[in-house]
Amino acid sequence: MDTLLAYDNDEHQNTFLNTLRDGVILLSDKHTVLFANVSAQHMLGLSEKQLLDKHFEDTVQLQADGKQISGSQSPVVKAHEKNGIYSSQSDKDVKLTMARADRSMLSVKMTVLPSNSSSSNVAFIVIFHDSSADEKIDQAKSEFIALVSHQLRTPVNIISWYVEKLMNEKHGNLNSSQATYLDEVVKSNKRVTDLVQAIVNVSRTDLNRLKHKHEAVDLVDILKRTVAEIKPIAQSKNISLSTHFDNDTTTLNDSDQELISTSVKNVLLNAVRYTQDGGGVKVTLHSLNATKELISKSGQVIEKSGYIISVSDNGIGIPDEEKQQIFNKLYRASNVQTLDVTGVGLGLYIAQNFMQELGGQIWFDSEVRDGATFYLFVPKE
Ligand code: ADP
Questions:
Q1: Cα separation, 303 vs 243, whole angstroms
Q2: pTM for the whole thing?
Q3: Mean pLDDT for each 10-residue chunk of the chain (381 residues)?
């Protein structure tokens, strides 16, 4: 783009910029508008005349997560200060919106590039991408996935129900081959059930349909039941699965059974999956005091009172360079991809979103080849 800007105010440059679907605004070093392409005018609902020579920060009103961005927080000021590129995409948790002339808000992604062209007085190139269309497509995809996964639940449950009936042998005895085949049906159907449930959970998260139930729960009871569910898998790998529950009152009056048990189950299942045969996994419910100490050691900023559930294993661990990504949807670290382990990379994404809905937090420590410990902070209220 700098080469183009060498032709300051050149007709070719403007024609080219006017063909772009993204909004482009060229600014002077004083942040006044030198040029705004047709898309930028449409997106802002302002004419070229209304934009030219105006100060960018006075003319383009931006909000981050619904809060007005003040002068010093302006993306152009940020790019100016660091003499580098500003990109709203690098901060994917922040939703950037831009006010249009009719006061409606438009979701945008924004990039500000400094221009070092010596032959023009353009100092900054501001590019806006209208992300509302992308959001609509994402929403439609999530709706479709939610619908399909809900529809799949019923037939999968019916298969389980009939297979169970056959296995009870009330309708006739099974020979050993039939029993073996049915065993395989049960295992595969369990995988489908788990996958469908994971997809249902992801679409609930993505469509903002998670609901914190605000109910009373007993943490020890949840942990005992989750451990009992995973125990057979641990036993099949000869992994010792131990528990330690600190002596405290662990009834929470304003919590959510499903959000906690699904998060713990996903983390515990991973600990068993990513630990070699014969290894060990430990589930601990820490007391209020022990939780405070663990939080201050971890460097996490948590001001509420609550309990930490930790799940530690002595398995394969997580490589340092991949630690940032493991909560991302569908991410699986390189050291698990060669293992003969089923998994699709949704468990931690779900656990993180469920813990956030609960007002809690999840994090981990790990040394590759030395194991991992996941911490789930559950607020008391
Ligand atoms: P998956 O279905 O692959 O287990 P998750 O979202 O639950 O998906 O986990 C994402 C990735 O994080 C895993 O594929 C694995 O690379 C890594 N991971 C999670 N838990 C552990 C653990 N306890 N030990 C080693 N790696 C882990």
A1: 27
A2: 0.79
A3: 51 87 94 95 94 93 89 84 82 81 92 82 92 88 93 94 93 93 94 93 91 94 96 96 86 95 97 96 95 93 94 97 95 87 90 96 96 97 80
> Backbone phi, then psi, for 69, in 5-degree steps?
-90, 120
Residue closest by Cα to atom 16 of ligand 1: 333
Distance 332 CA to ligand 1 centre (A): 6
Please list the alpha-helical segments (H only) found in the chain. 2-5, 11-19, 38-44, 48-51, 56-59, 75-82, 132-167, 176-206, 219-236, 257-273, 288-298, 347-357
Nearest protein Cα to ligand 1, atom 8: 345
Q: What is the per-residue DSSP string for 190-208? A: HHHHHHHHHHHHHHHHHTT
Q: How far is Cα 221 from Cα 40, in angstroms, rounded to an integer? A: 57
Torsion-angle region of residue 51: left (phi > 0), alpha (psi -120 to 50) or beta? alpha
Among protein residues, the one with the nearest Cα to ligand 1's atom 13 is 332
- Answer for the pair 86, 79: CB distance below 8 angstroms, yes or no: yes
